[in-house]
Each structure stands twice: as structure tokens, then as C-alpha cells.
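3-methylmercaptopropionyl-CoA dehydrogenase, Vreelandella zhuhanensis. C-alpha cells?
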Amino acid sequence: MPSYQAPLRDLRFVMNEMLGYPAHYARLPGGDEASPETVDAILEEGARFAREVLLPLNRSGDEEGCRLEGGEVKAPKGFREAYQQYVEGGWPSLAADPAQGGQGLPHSLAMVLSEMICATNLAWGMYPGLSHGAADALRHHGTEEQKATYLTKLVEGVWTGSMCLTEPHCGTDLGLIKTRAVPADDGGYDISGTKIFISAGDHDLAENIVHLVLAKLPDAPEGSKGISLFVVPKYLPDADGGPGEHNGVACGSLEHKMGIHGNATCVMNFDAARGYLVGAPNKGLACMFTMMNAARLGVGIQGLGLTEASFQNSLAYARDRLQMRALSGPQSPEKPADPIIVHPDVRRMLLTQKAFAEGGRMLVLYTAQILDVVEHGEANAERERAETLLGLLTPIVKAFLTEVGFEATNEGVQVFGGHGFIREWGMEQLVRDARITRLYEGTTGIQALDLLGRKVLMSQGETLKLFTKEIHQFCKAEADNPALKVFVEPLAKLNAEWGELTLGVGMKAMQDREEVGAASVDYLMYSGYVTLAYLFARAVKQASQSLEGDETAFYQAKIDTARFYFQRLLPRTRAHAAMVQAGAGSLMAISSEDFGCGFEL
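C-alpha cells:
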């Protein structure tokens, strides 16, 4: 079974030393509750829960999977008990508003816990993870009655949430949904239709499940402009607010999946299920985006957690596995062979994992800090700037961290060699679980279109300039810092090129809109690599100031990892830039009929 230790020292470096979290928390309303002592206690206890409670259930949950019995879904053994411990520990309410029963701590602190959960048991973590998004949607768009009925239960964790969007005939194009909502006499709606790929759609962990469902009213406009959002509980609340009569919603079947076997991915059937409108009629997609954006950040954290888990186990194996001698001569002459960690190619794979884990953590915590400002900033201008940056970074967090997370878990299998292909080591499960992260909550291609098309080009580049200006100011301030010279110079060039690439795509798109789709994924990956380069440069600045003392090795390793990233991973931007500039011509030249070229379908 894989092992795991929460990277607390690295978390504290990024939070306390690099990003100044203690001062950040002190500026937030009620931030005095997030004292350094409280934060440390939460990190330590979260690490213990993830390691001792969730990790032992990861492999067994994968092997057992979920079961559909008598129309009810049963989660793997131990999942329900772990969830009860999670609720009793107060974890669901950590960052929720005290007015709804929450503890009022910053959202960023909950995101740190999410990394630990995703690293130890991704399938289990999806059950409470979806509840946070459902609570956010109701908090922002629900009526006071809906908040009183559902929100407190979600915050407490006694009820969980799900997000019901996709249907058999439509995935990303939600304007095609067929689920219908017919007005009822009591002010509610009868919801009928089928949804597929619904994570945590049914299970036995909590006493009720609150489904947020996209559907169309009888007189709704065509397309996405006619979508409304409804809250549809599995059990209708009774007079006391508890779960009462079973609603007309049921799991029709469980999907047979490549990974995340411990999470119930359901086909959900709604048969005149009673639901209640959330937000305004035909404005459901805007309401659902509150939940979707939270979920997208959560999926990015899943990529980070799996990267960290793969790296830790790869490192332990590479230190122990004996194979051949180092090319420069025996490094462990007392042993029959050297540990494989001495070999350059093994180190390349390990450092790739390490760089993506540490860089991804910096990106998540940087973004989490911005989210705190969006939620709690006192000045309007500060909140508006933070909201713009959050919009820019969300598709990068989601797509880039899941793309490199899948790469990192595959490298983990490679470090183990043939043993990585064998189930008992647990590395192949990480690959299977990581694969879904590139798909759900919007594929990499969809995130890339959101980044380039909506966030950057639709704002005439102003959204991007907000971030590139920050990078430019950092590079200018550190231009004469000898410790940062080899980092700042290439970063400054890439930062300038980022704007030039954007302008180039924008000019081409004025003549042919297909240019946006042709460039988008490479543009997103380019953006991700440059963003991590900026954060690594900031990390080097902090680490270089702390080389004297008892932790010299930790800080030097941070600088060395950054150097590896700049020399070995950042050059990938050259290929992505070339592909962005290549345009849509070669992609669109072959007609769809001629794709086969030699065979008939």
C-alpha cells in the first residue's frame, strides 16, 4: 500500500514565508481566528486524519467499488465511518459562514486540507467535496427559505450535495439538455429527466443528498439561455427539517469506470421529482457556475494531491530499489548494486514530479489567497481585482495541474518499472484516478477556450495584463538581485512573449474564429508554465534569504528544484509557443469525410 506524509514543511514555507499568510489572515474580517497556532493545529490534525483514516481505505475502496442494491448505492466498507469522523471533527464547516453553522475560517485553509484528502483517497474526498460547491451555490443564489432548509445541513455535513448537469446526449453543450421542470400547485416544480456521470449522486454516507439540477421550464428559450437551476433533495424535508418522504429521484445504474472506483458515479433518473427554483428563471447556468468554479479549483487540487502522492512513493522506492551501478562508479560499494536514485533519468522523473508538486502547491495557495480576498476583502477595488485574477487563474489551476498531474503519476509508474504496473504497489491506481481529472468539470480543451476566448480575448487582454503587470513589477524589482538573475531574465522574456502571443492570436481570430480553438490548449499550457516560473522565482527569492541556519538543506533544495524547473521544464514553452503561432490551417485542412484516408466506417 502506498504511504503518505503531508508535506507540512513545504506548506508552511509557501503559506508563512513566501505568501505571508499570517499577515494575510490578520487583514481579513474575523481573521484573528486563523492565528498561526490555530492554523498549525488544523494542518497537523488534517494530516493525521488523511494518513490514518483515509489512506488505509484507498486501495480497498478501489478494489471493492460501490454497489447498487435495492435501488440504493452502498459505498465501500469503511467509507461511511470515515465520513462520520470527518463530520464529528467539524471539517465540513471549516470555512463556512457562522450564520449557517460554519466556523468562519478562510477558504484557503479548507483548500489546504483538500490537498491532503486528494493525496490519500481521491474517491472518498469527492463525496464531501461536492457538498462545498452545492453550499456555495445556495449561499449566493438561494432564497432565505432554501438556505434555512438546506444550507445549514450541508455546512454541518449531515447532508451532502451533488451537481447534475450532463445528459446522455449532451456533455459540455448544456443548451441541449432535455430535463424538464413543470410548475406545480405549491410553488415547486416537477423535475423529469435523466442525468449521467453524476459523482456522489447516491450513497449511504449521509442521511440526505441535495441535488442541484439543471432543467428547462415549459416556455424556456432555446439553448443555454433557457436553463434554470433547481434544488432537488433525495428525501423531501419533513416538518422538523429532517429527511422525510422519498422524492422521485433514484440511481438507475452505476458507471463502470477506469478509476475512482470508490466514488459512486451514477445515472440519475428524475421522475416528477419535486424541486425548487434557485435564482431567477432561465438564469440557471450563471447560478451553477458558482458551483462549477468551486469544483474546477477542487479538481486542480486533485491533480496536485495525486502528484504529491506519486512523488513521495516514487522517491521512497528509488532510494530503496537496487539496480546497476552509477555510470560514474559505485555509489554504494557495500551493496550489490546502487539505488536507482543515482541514475540521471530516474532523477529526471523524480524532479519532474517534485517540481510539479511544489509548483502546483504554490499555484493553489496563491490562488486560494486571492479567493479569500474575493470572499472577504473589505475594499470594492481590492475585491474586483481579486475576482478578475481568480477568473484568469481558475482554468489554469484546473487544466494545467491535472495535465501535469497525469504526467507525474505516469512518471511514478515508470520509476517503479515493472512493479509500477502491478496493482499491489498502488501506483497504477494513481494513474487511473488521475485520468478523470482532465475530463470532468470541463475538459482541458473547454478550460483552454474559457481562458483564451472568454477571460483574455473578450477583455481585450486587460485581464491578462493585470497578472503580467504583477510579474513585470517583480522582475523589475529583482533585476539586480544576483541570486535571482538566472530566473528573472528568462521569466521577463516569457512574460513579454505571453502578451505578444495573445495579440497574435487575437489578430488572427478577427479573420477566422477557429484560430482561438486551434491555439487554446497550447496557450493554456504555455500560461501554466510561465505562471509556475513566476512562483518559483518568488520561492527562490525567499529561500535565498534563509540559507543561513539549521534548515539550509531545505532552502537549497528549493532553489535547486527551481533551477531544474527553469532548465528542464520551462523550455516546453518554446514548443507551445510555436504551436500557438502555427495557426488553424493544418488542423482544418482535411475535410471530416477524408479523415479516414483508406478505411471506411
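Residues 284-320 form the longest helix (37 residues).
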